## 1
Amino acid sequence: MVSAAGLGMALRAVLVNRLRSLLTILGVVIGVAAVIALTSLGRATTSRVESTVEGLGTNLLVVSPGAATATGFVSPQQAPITLAQEQALQAAVPAVDAMAPVITTAATLAYGSTSATVPTEATTVDIARVRNLRLAEGSFFSPAAQAAGAADIVLGAQAAADLFGSSDPPGAVGATVEVNGLPFTVVGVLAPLGQSGATNQDLSAFVPITTAMGELTGPADLSAIYASARSAGEMALATAEIDAALTAIQGLAPGSAPDFTVTSQTQVLSTLNTVTAELTTFLGAIAGISLLVGGIGIMNIMLVSVTERTREIGIRKAVGARRADILSQFVLEAVLLSLAGGVLGVAVGSLITLLGGRALGVAASPSASSDLVALAFSVAVGVVFGAYPAVRASRLMPMQALRYE
Amino acid sequence: MSAFIELEGVTKGFPVGGGVYPALRGIDLAVERGEFVAVTGPSGHGKSTLMSIIGVLDRPTGGRYRLEGVEVAGLSEDAMARLRSRTIGFVFQGFHLVPTLTALENVELPMVYARVPPAERRRRAQALLEWAGIGEHARQRPVQMSGGEQQRVAICRALALDPPLILADEPTGNLDSHSGRVVLDQLAGLNAEGRTVVLVTHDPTVAARARREVHIFDGRVEWDRRRPDAPSAAGGAGGG
């Protein structure tokens, strides 16, 4: 009997005990809010990771020393990758559009009294093409400066802001900063790149590798080689070419286990996606458990309600209510409770999503589909956990129920 | 042709501890349409149990009970509910109104379960309350009304589906003498309209309003007396 009258009566019964109803639905509110917030924040994080990795360039390949084992760990390298090997490699890989060697070092940058520790990459001018770097001001160091070992430096947006204070294009170009005590001239400042996972890509600096090997790092081995394929479709080809050529260059026997690893951004992307998806599912499942607990709370209070209203059930039966009428009345009440919890939970969850998204710096918004799923789920909780008390109510014999004190 | 209410050797036992307590030990009773019967007897001797059997609120343990020629023993619980709803209006000592519903909604309740369309049941419920002289209480909850008013709401609810039988269990038990008289007048009026009224009471002055008195003692009919000289319904049922 889901009629307007039945709905009205159920609503009345729920509203009579406002505080109790509110406390009863709290479990469902928390459960639904947690499911909504965790899944939408998880989704937002996943898509941000995707977009930042895509921002790095989907054509990007990273060659790092040391072989990746089956478990994904990189074994201690036996042979380093040297700058000479990188130069030899450049000539042997036609599917690669551009390639840049990188030595990463944490350098202390100082301007006047301000100083900052910045991950600094000693590289070639080609890095700008490989990683799709854009300048907000000035220019990248020139091939000529690179060849001459000039003390030029390009700053990331955050590094420039840290040193020169302002977030506006700070007029840093032309200034002299000290890198580990050595004077370098700022020739360019990069446009902001954004966050990549836990790494702030804008806290960066680039110096010519020739200069660095002379003065900053000394003659060092490469941290990595960055390469970009001509197109996304040629990623596999470029990987194979690099594999073969570098194996030959390092003097390893063809077919033997390589002592380096070629990683593509798509691989990183899919790994990250798997991890975040699993994490989201896991968190959602934990939140789902609190929904279950909320359902048990509803069942408990409905059982109390059936006992308290035994007389009322007797009256209703005396005036002609059938079993199904009583059954549906109590199920309806349970569903109203859980649905109210669901609606409130969606509201709270959306709020948490928005606030949490702002705090985490991701564009998180609750999706209509997950709201609907959460509401449907809370209705199901009401039906499932309301069923048993309702059956108990419907089985009462009218005379015994009427006499109940 | 059987009587309107017909009990033959009806027994009812309640399980108590390991055994069975026999509340009714074999009741034979026939009530014709239009009668006004008082069921009397000391408390604890089976009056209320008899009333719950006649009211189809409970099944007899043994014997036969036919209401309007329908054998109750063979009915499912839902069929019993339908039979109650069609045939019987109840008035209880404790009024038994649903506390969360207004007077109007309480009167509507039997019609809700009988699937009477909303507009029609509202109209009829309001008309019944007006007839009982408590139309202005339609929007009030039971706690906001006096006992006499509540019992009149209960009588309106009993009449909602225009049943041929009114079963009243100590209807004046919780009322002051004036309210009690008003309620009894209403019941007498309903009987004058042609309805069968069965009134359970332990109070001889209340029983005196009926034209027949069935006295229950120790689970049996001790005596069954007709009073052709009993006061008629002329006392007035407040219109209708």
Note: Residues 4-52+270-403 of chain A form one domain.
## 2
Amino acid sequence: MQAPWVGSAHACWLVGMTTPTTAPARAGIAPAPQKVRGFIALTFALTWAPWLGALALGGDLDRPSSSSCT
Amino acid sequence: MIGGFGPSLAALVQRLRGIRTPRSARVSRIARWLPAAALLGAAPAVIAAVAGPLFGAPALTMDDVTATFAGSGLLQFLLIATVAGPLAEEFGWRGYLQPRLRVRLSPVATAGVLGTVWALWHLPLFLLTGTWQSTLGPVEGLGFLVSMVPMSLTYWFISERLRGGVPAAVVMHYAGNVALSLLPFTALAGGLCFLVGVLGIAAALLVAVARTPAAPPGDRPANRTVPTGLNGRRRTSPSA
């Protein structure tokens, strides 16, 4: 007899690895890898430029409470 | 502080370029996604605070809790916690990137990619004095970065699966930041409990998703394929 967790684990594997694309596809977002790459590049540029600039200037944000974000 | 707005700013730039992202949030489902987002966001820090002392971490005192906002005041602390992280990031991560990754990838693969990008994005904060990340040791820091992959699965659950969209992600991020600030790690054991908590929540959600249908009938567009959520097979919903 199959242990109960085996069924759950198998279902999790299936839903995690093979669930077809759902809400975004239905909502009409076309697959566009360049838009993903462009967004990631833009995000890192907008973020890392000031952060690395601060690092180059001594690396102290001097605002402890404002940077505890995850 | 300004750099932290990168993800939401990038999403805004894309929007101004005419790249639109349909809203996925459903106000009618707020009774489901709002409490779920708040609870799931705060849960890992609460788990770490409760379980940490069982594994040798010093128990938190009320002074530890209030120390976070003792200097700035509670209102300023809550305001900063709303802006720094939740509003500054989620329009980008969950509002723009997640839906586009989901067009081609499964939820787990999406969480893997998004969580990795999200973690890499945080790296400079470890080098900047004055950030929370810079106070972490190497192991805690690695745990923080690793936790972002399973955490991304939880964000997927509340934003897409529960139809909470960006508002739910903002609430979850806010709850997570506030909980982590009020209940900080006091030792490595606490950090490990946090990571185990994040992993456990993601695993539990996978089990829950595997056992429940994908969406209630009212949310299904007519004549479109939707997943069963159990075996990955598509099925066609009836015409409206």
Note: Residues 63-68 of chain A have pLDDT under 50 and may be disordered.
